[in-house]
Amino acid sequence: KVEERGHWSKTIEFILAVAGAIVGLGNVWRFPYLCYKNGGDVGAFLVPYLVLVVTCGIPLFLLESAVGQYAQEGSITCWRKLCPIAEGAIVCLGNVWRFPYLCYKNGGDVGAFLVPYLVLVVTCGIPLFLLESAVGQYAQEGSITCWRKLCPIAEGIGYGGVLILIYSCITYIVILSWSLLYLVFSFSSQLPWATCNNYWNSEFCFSGQNDTSAWSNKTNTTSAATEFWEQRVLAISGGIEEIGSVRWEVLLCLMAMWVICYFCIWKGVKSTGKVVYFTATLPYVMLLVLLIRGLTLPGAMEGVLYYLLPEVSQLADPQVWMEAAAQIFFSYSVGVGSLIVRSSYNNYNYNCYKQVLSSLWLCALNCGTSLAAGFAVFSVLGFMAHEQGVPISDVAESGPGLAFIAYPQAIAMMPLPQLWSVCFFIMIILLGLDTQ
């Protein structure tokens, strides 16, 4: 006798779980950087973004959700049961994930990012999101068993999605360990990345608090936040030939985050459904607090204008559309099976029309969070550029550089820096937990 699969006790638990998965660190540090990387053009970037959301994001989102609800199994077994002739789809899916990412990594001068982003959200993101959600609910299995049931020859799609999720989990848990360490340091009487009076600082360290002239001549200087990140947290060695030492503090934080993740899901959907009430809502409170604080800082409007002013001529550049597509697939979690798994815990007879409305709300929440995070980040970067007397392009960072160097450095310049630092890293940790 097959054991009956558990279900979400309330619809809101499913909605919050999916919201926590699709609204994460990518919205906070990747989306604003892509806008900056593309010339700071949030206005022009919206067109391709919305196009891809409608044509790719929402369809894939709905597809995976429906598959999961139908199969009632995980991602690997789900694909084994779907369509025997669909195995070749994994190649196209891999191209969708890998090719735009390589274009993003290789970079270049890309403008008008938000315009294609919003266009692709409407034409790709939302439809795909809805399709995956519907398939998950229909199959009532995870992505592997779902495809095994619906299309046995396509079971490899489920395994491929699980492999992507494994790599993502390994990456995010390390980011969470760094964030936890920064959170602990945030309770210090003086933020350690705010001064150059520490044992890890070099003679070229500048904090920006005592001497502002050095910021205009930074040839041989390093910010205190950068030295804290590279020398105190990571202890970067001189080269690949040097093994370096174990960072015991980071290791302890890594173990702590794995334990926290375990207890968030150890009872399956029952514990996860309760945890998401906290982890999926509190980050928005923190983001709102940081947004309000950022917009009230001197120089914030310079950062906001840099974020909003468009360069419409860049819409003809295909690089813009590829980057927008990469952001949508990444942030909507389509194609990796996570939507199928979450939707598989919905009741089989759950109203699909309500599912569409919920999915549209989640997709709108994802886009809104990205936009709000952009305002929060660029207002603070504008403040930091104003304080240092340098262009915003000189203080903007991507990925870990934004979360662990640029933003902490800006926080150190604010009144009550410990408070804002705690708020920021709690938000990062909760977003990362939801993504995990």
Automatic annotation (TrEMBL):
PROSITE patterns: NA_NEUROTRAN_SYMP_2 (PS00754), NA_NEUROTRAN_SYMP_3 (PS50267)
Alphabetical list of Pfam families matching this protein: SNF
Keyword Zinc assigned: no
Principal place of residence: membrane
Superkingdom of origin organism: Eukaryota
Record-linked InterPro entries: Na/ntran_symport, SNS_sf
GO molecular-function term, one example from the UniProt record: gamma-aminobutyric acid:sodium:chloride symporter activity
Gene Ontology cellular component list: cell projection; plasma membrane
Transmembrane segments: 12-30, 42-62, 82-101, 113-135, 156-185, 246-265, 277-300, 320-341, 361-385, 405-433
Bilayer topology annotation: Multi-pass membrane protein
Localization terms from the record: Membrane
Keywords: Membrane, Transmembrane, Transmembrane helix, Transport
Entry protein name: Si:ch211-132b12.2
UniProt source species: Tetraodon nigroviridis (Spotted green pufferfish)
